[in-house]
Structures are given as structure tokens and as C-alpha cells.
Design brief:
The chain has two domains: 63 residues; 74 residues, no CATH class. The protein is built from six helices and no strands. Helix 1 packs antiparallel against helix 2.
Length: 177
């Protein structure tokens, strides 16, 4: 224990010597034009190294104390318990609150999306079954219909290039019910 105190006192001495004596002397030389920038930079790094070593030694001395270690352990354990309790309370609150106010859950939104994709596919299949003359006549009359037809013939491809299809495991069900 005595060796660590003398080492800590030595690091404090090194820091104050570098920060309060050497650095101002080199800065004054550089301002007067007698010193060079390399020596000033070297002294600055010496102060930085002394500060980092001192901070490291102070941290080691603080955390080697059993009282501080026990207190920080209790604080961490308490913080984890509070986090777990708050997560459980939030899940219980929103689990009951969400349906009460009428907002859809994630499962319901996923089922709705699947139903919309199935409807798109069904609409696309009806568009492909139209005779060519009737389709050309409709394109000439309504440019928006032509745009919609091109979108339908594209097959509603997802970003990865795969066609969007309804999952067979979900089956058909009404989400609104």
C-alpha cells in the first residue's frame, strides 16, 4: 500500500511539473521566437501523458477500495432491477392499453398487409385476363388506367425482386373482426 501511495505522489508531482513549469516555459519561448514548435508539441504530449497516467492511478486507487466497489456493485444491481421492473410494467400497461383504445397490434397489422397483398394479386390476375382490344381501348381513354395496368403487370415486386405473395400459413381471415 505504501508503494502505491508513493507512486501516486510521484505521478502528481510529474503532472504539476510538466503542466505548471515546463509547458508555460516552452510556450513563452515559442511566443518570444526563441523556441521551436517541435519542443512545444513534445512538452504538450508530456503533460497529456502525465495527466492520463495520473487519472488512471487515481481511478485504480478509488476502485481498489472495497467500500467503493461494493457501492458501485449495488448501484449496478439496483439499476438492472429497476430496468427489469419498468420493462415488465410497460409491457403490462401497453398490453392492455393498446387494444382498449382501439389501436391495432403488430399481428393485426401484419395480417392486414397480407390481405392487401392478396387483393393486389387478385386484381392483377383480373387485369391480365382482359382481351387485348378492350385493354387498348381503355388505355386510350384513361391514362391513369394505363399506369395502373402497367403496375399490375409488374406483379407488385418487393424491393428484393420477389413477388409479394400471401403466406399460406396465415390463411384468410378478417382482421377487422
Amino acid at each position: 500500500m505504501q508503494g502505491s501511495k508513493s507512486f501516486l505522489a510521484e505521478q502528481v508531482s510529474n503532472f504539476f511539473e510538466a503542466a505548471w513549469l515546463e509547458l508555460p516555459a516552452e510556450a513563452a519561448k515559442a511566443l518570444a521566437g526563441a523556441g521551436d514548435e517541435r519542443a512545444l508539441r513534445k512538452t504538450g504530449w508530456k503533460v497529456y501523458d502525465a495527466w492520463v497516467t495520473l487519472a488512471n492511478e487515481l481511478t485504480n486507487a478509488i476502485y481498489s477500495d472495497p467500500i467503493v466497489g461494493e457501492a458501485s456493485g449495488r448501484v449496478m444491481e439496483t439499476a438492472l432491477r429497476v430496468r427489469q421492473i419498468s420493462g415488465t410494467m410497460a409491457a403490462a400497461f401497453f398490453g392492455n392499453f393498446w387494444p382498449m383504445i382501439g389501436l391495432p397490434t403488430h399481428t393485426e397489422m401484419a395480417a392486414l398487409r397480407d390481405d392487401l397483398l392478396a387483393l393486389r394479386e387478385e386484381l392483377a390476375s383480373y387485369t391480365r385476363l382482359q382481351p387485348a382490344e378492350e385493354s387498348a381501348e381503355m388505355d386510350a381513354q384513361d391514362p391513369l388506367a394505363a399506369f395502373w395496368k402497367r403496375a399490375q403487370l409488374n406483379g407488385y415486386r418487393a424491393a428484393n425482386g420477389n413477388p409479394l405473395r400471401r403466406s399460406s400459413s396465415l390463411g384468410k381471415r378478417n382482421v377487422a373482426a
